[in-house]
Amino acid sequence: MTTYREFHARSIRDKDGFWREQAALVDWKKPFDRVLDYSRPPFANWFVGGTTNLCHNAVDRHLAARGEQNALIYVSTETDQEKNYTFNQLYREVNRFAGILKGLGVGRGDRVLIYMPMIPEAMFAMLACVRIGAIHSVVFGGFASVSLATRIDDAKPKVIVSADAGSRAGKAVPYKALLDEAIALSKCPPGKVVLVNRGLAELPMVAGRDLDYATLRAAHMNDEVPCEWLESSEPSYILYTSGTTGRPKGVQRDTGGYAVALAASMKHIFCGNAGETYFSTSDIGWVVGHSYIVYGPLIAGMATVMYEGTPIRPDGGIWWKIVEQHKVTTMFSSPTAIRVLKKQDPAFLKKYDLSSLRLLFLAGEPLDEPTARWIADGLGKPVVDNYWQTETGWPILAIPRGVEALPSKFGSPGVPCYGYDVKLFSEIDGAEVGADQKGVVGIEGPLPPGCMTTVWDDDERFVKTYWTSVPNRQVYSTFDWGIRDKDGYYFILGRTDDVINVAGHRLGTREIEESISSHPNIAEVAVVGVADQLKGQVAVAFAVVKDASKIATPELKLAHEGEVMKTVDAQLGAVARPARVHFVNVLPKTRSGKLLRRSIQAICEGRDPGDLTTIEDPTALDQIRAAIADR
Ligand code: AMP
Question: What is the CA(387)–ligand 1 centre distance, in A?
Answer without folding.
Answer: 6
